[in-house]
Amino acid sequence: MHPLLLRRRQFGLYLFLWLLVGALLAALLVGQRGLSWVVAGAVALPLATAYSFVCLSAWYVARGMPLTGTGTLRILVTALAAAVLSSAIWLLIARAWFSVLSRRLSAPGGADAIHGLQPLLFGFGLLLYLLSLAVSYVLAAFEASQEAERRGLTVQVLAREAELRSLRAQIDPHFLFNSLHSISALTTADPAGARRMCLLLGDFLRETLALGGEAYIPLARELALIDRFLAIERVRFGDRLRTEISAGDAGSCRVPPLLLQPVVENAITHGLAHLIEGGLLRVWAERTDALLLIRAENPCDPDGPRGAGAGVGLANVRARLRAVHGQAASLTAEARGSTWRVEIVMPAIEAT
User: Fold this and answer.
1) pLDDT tens digits for 253-264?
2) What ranges do the domains of the chain cover?
3) Sign of CA dihedral 300, 306, 308, 313
4) Which pick of 61, 138, 312, 338 has the fewest CB atoms within 10 Å?
């Protein structure tokens, strides 16, 4: 079925445009044939409405012979043949309508005047059909362009989702490697601590598995996962690791799951772990207008070199933010004296 017939508003606009064509034809009949406006309107408006349905066939012609892949000569011959056939059909409709008007017109010579309009109507019909066909080709090209754009967006979304899955898959092996290495170190010095760390690690992994394929989770839940992760790290560092976590009024905002785990792990591995006295790791969030700000801050040794893998976790987080929000999100990390700060800025999206 023609797409215009499925959309009432567009079809109403289509008929309105054809009524304007009918008004133009009526004005032509008044000026060229000397008909009265009543007779010209009685001829032109119904015929224009009838021809509007005939010209709907131009859409099928344009779809059946696309500009790409069809020879120019074939398009021209088919277009001209379709225009002649449609105009001939319109002329048959006009003759039937003329016979009705001839019996009803009381003006002398009215019927003869109407019958003399047939050559003019045939030529006018040719031009109108060719114009309809040209518009149909333009609409078909626009539709093809939109379809290509939709396919491009679909491919882009699929590629972005694949990138996100790949980036998220990198988190667990890296984290497990570090945790198992720590458990191995504790088995000799602190067997009870190693056992407790295994239990905490199991609870943490159970929580992460419960996330399934969720693309977003509330920030409050993300911070709860971070707290479980820090409980594992406290087995190693004891009182050297002190934490302060606050979601503020942003706890309901949605974030990608495990977004902050690499940030916190980086702060411990390449910051607090190198300080004999340890320090305070602060993670807090706030919402300003349409933005969500998440900051992580920890003490560090300003004179100590950062580890070779210090930027891997942050690069992972930055890549996930870019894949989800594009240029609307950012991650910055810098040392301010003896303090290392990571700041994440992203759109504030409320959890539903």
Assistant:
1) 999 888 898 898
2) 3-151, 190-347
3) positive
4) 138
